[in-house]
From TrEMBL:
The enzyme's E.C. designation: 2.7.13.3
Keyword presence, Transferase: yes
Record protein name field: histidine kinase
Coiled coil: 408-442
Transmembrane segments: 200-221, 228-246, 258-279, 291-308, 314-336, 348-369, 375-395
Gene3D superfamilies: Galactose-binding domain-like (2.60.120.260), Histidine kinase-like ATPase, C-terminal domain (3.30.565.10)
Length: 644
């Protein structure tokens, strides 16, 4: 009675192969169950001719003079005979045998169950006893046992087997089937009992704990998937219930009654979690019904907790009926939920629940009718559910992989589209930036024409107007000065580029060619320390600013410095590798740097405005014999590594 875990997708899925496999396994289980023998064999020895004389039981000690023996058949449960009785009961099996055991081979004895604890005597000889025959009792009710007995323990003629059973009224006390005879036959019977009473339950326990652990970890990683959490609780409570079936002791409980109360509470918890899981699996919530079911469960728990020994059997019976009713009604109602659902895994789980209905009806009928023979098929539920969940998980993993592959393909397509859009956006931004630079250059050119050439024209007009004599040489000098100013303005506006050069070498090449020719004519030595690659990739505006500062500085060197040596370098800042430094030095006569701050030196003041506009720093140091102009591009404000 184990559920499986959550799935929330609604894609189409063909379950034909899974359903065929599931039906095949169910048929195999059903055939194996019906093929199991249900007859109770008391003697399985071909060498001894044994004749059963009597099987009887009594609540009194067998050594008492007055005995109240009652003839019984095995398996026997004394609830109907001695209602409400808890304590020791003796069983006595007598038979006569004539054995031809010349080879002195051992004889095997097997007992299906002793509920709850007991001890076994053969012809007044103790062959076994439980560890505890008083509360807390040992739990032998689900533990088949067998012993290899020496022929010396048997009599030729009448033999007697005495078995003391200590039972509890509410725990179906009594004695199970017995087999006595050849070891190979009896051991085969014992292995058959062990398979259905212990091994299948152990497999059930391992499967439940495994699924509980896996789904609990999944729930921890994805807490919003409440289905996994409910399935983990369902498997955990069922595992505890199965462990209590397999356990030989009742620690930490002090009595079998308290232990049975706890076990019934676990079974109710399991059924409630199972129902909640199945609803969450189908993406359904019935809050009012869930509150009602939990309220009834709490009331039953309280009734079981306070029940006395006289009313405990009724309380446990009510709890058992509540569990059975919940389980069957949920399995039936889930068929309607599956019909309304479009999820194939929900419909597959509904098929599993159909099988659970058959298993539940079969075992509950055996319990209610108190059939002592046959096999309970509930232990098969966990392995079958494990297989069902494995199939669902395998299909879900395959489906999720397909979803992931489709998502990756769509993601790659979206990335490519985004790249194209981003490239177009960057191209547009670049064009806007170039247009903005051109506009700024035009504004700058207008200022240069107004402040530079306009001032020269006014000064020339003033000189001509005031001069009494004006010869040809003076006139030519004025025209040359105007020509030079106009060329400087034209040259400063002709270097606009739309892209940043790939390397500083390409950036410096036109400047170097223009000024080196003039330097050579004036016998000025120039050193150009330009790296092969940009220390930090500049933007277009920064690239143009460096070009203008270099042009203006070198023009001033030609006009005013009278220098013989000039150094032009482009390096990284000493203390900040992410900052780029343009340095120009000469050994001329120098000038007064304070004129830059007051605005008296128009060219240097224009350079300062340009550098500040890009967030850089302009440093000017000048004295006779050494003038240094340093431009630092600050990375705190401009990330030069980003392409433009």
């Amino acid at each position: 009675m184990h559920p499986n875990q959550s799935c929330r997708y609604s894609t189409q899925f063909r379950l034909t192969r899974l359903i065929r496999l599931w039906v095949f396994l169910c048929c195999m289980v059903s055939m194996s169950l019906h093929a199991s023998p249900t007859e109770v064999l008391h003697f399985d020895d071909h060498q001894c001719k044994a004749q059963l004389k009597q099987i009887r039981s009594t609540r009194d000690a067998p050594e008492l003079t007055t005995r109240h023996w009652v003839n019984v058949n095995l398996p026997d449960r004394w609830e109907n005979r001695w209602k409400g009785y808890s304590g020791p009961v003796w069983y006595q099996i007598r038979w006569s045998q004539q054995c031809d055991n010349t080879q002195n081979t051992p004889i095997a004895l097997a007992i299906h169950s002793i509920s709850m604890a007991g001890e076994v005597y053969l012809n007044q000889h103790l062959i076994w006893k439980d560890r505890a025959l008083v509360e807390p009792l040992s739990r032998s009710w689900n533990a088949p046992r067998y012993w290899m007995l020496s022929p010396a323990h048997f009599n030729t003629g009448l033999n007697q087997l005495d078995i003391k059973v200590v039972g509890v009224a509410t725990q179906t006390p009594g004695l199970g089937e017995m087999h006595l005879g050849q070891p190979d036959i009896v051991i085969a019977k014992h292995e058959h009992y062990t398979l259905f009473n212990r091994t299948l339950y152990f497999v059930n326990l391992v499967a439940s704990l495994t699924l509980s652990t896996i789904t609990f970890i999944i729930w921890l990683l994805r807490s919003k998937e409440s289905t996994f959490g409910w399935f983990a609780l369902t498997s955990f409570f069922w595992a505890l219930f199965v462990y209590n079936i397999l356990s030989f002791d009742i620690y930490p409980f002090s009595s079998t009654i308290a232990y049975s109360k706890f076990n019934m509470c676990l079974l109710i918890l399991y059924s409630l979690c199972f129902i909640t899981f199945s609803w969450r699996f189908a993406n359904r919530k019935f809050k009012k019904i869930e509150i009602l079911l939990w309220s009834i469960a709490i009331a039953i728990w309280l009734y079981i907790a306070v029940a006395s020994n006289n009313t405990l059997q009724l309380a446990l019976f009510i709890g058992f009926l509540y569990v059975v009713a919940l389980f069957l009604l949920n399995c039936i109602a889930f068929q309607w939920i599956a019909l309304k659902s479009e999820q194939p895994e929900v419909r597959f789980l509904a098929l599993v629940f159909l099988l659970y209905i058959v298993i539940c009806i079969h075992d509950v009928t055996k319990i209610l009718l108190q059939h002592q023979t046959g096999i309970f098929i509930t232990p098969f539920s966990a392995p079958l559910m494990t297989l069902a969940i494995s199939l669902i998980l395998a299909w879900r993993i395959a489906r999720n992989m397909n979803h992931i592959e489709n998502f990756n393909q769509q993601l790659e397509y979206n990335i490519e589209q985004t790249k194209l859009e981003l490239k177009q956006s960057l191209d547009n931004k670049h064009q806007l930036e170039i247009e903005n630079i051109r506009l700024q250059e035009r504004i700058h050119l207008s200022h240069e024409l107004h402040d530079g050439l306009g001032g020269s024209l006014v000064r020339s007009m003033f000189l001509v107007d005031k001069a009494e004599q004006f010869d040809k040489q003076q006139f030519m000098s004025i025209l040359k000065l105007l020509r030079n100013d106009l060329r400087q303005i034209i040259d400063s506006g002709s270097s606009i580029g739309v892209t940043v050069p790939e390397s500083p070498i390409i950036w410096a090449a036109p400047l170097r060619r223009r000024f080196v020719e003039i330097f050579d004519e004036l016998d000025i030595h120039s050193d150009w320390d330009i790296p092969q690659q940009w220390p930090v990739q500049p933007t277009a505006l920064e690239f143009l600013t460096m070009a203008r500062v270099t042009e203006e500085t070198l023009t001033n060197v030609l006009k005013h410095s009278r220098a013989k040596n000039v150094l032009i370098s482009l390096v990284c800042h000493r203390h900040h590798p992410q900052e780029m430094v343009l340095n120009i030095e000469d050994d001329g006569i120098g000038f007064d740097p304070t004129k830059v701050q007051t605005g008296l030196h128009v060219g240097l003041h224009s350079m300062q405005i340009r550098v500040q506009r890009i967030g850089g720093i302009l440093k000017i140091q000048s004295q006779p014999g050494r003038t240094q102009i340093e431009v630092i591009l600050c990375r705190q404000k401009h990330d030069l590594s980003q392409p433009h």
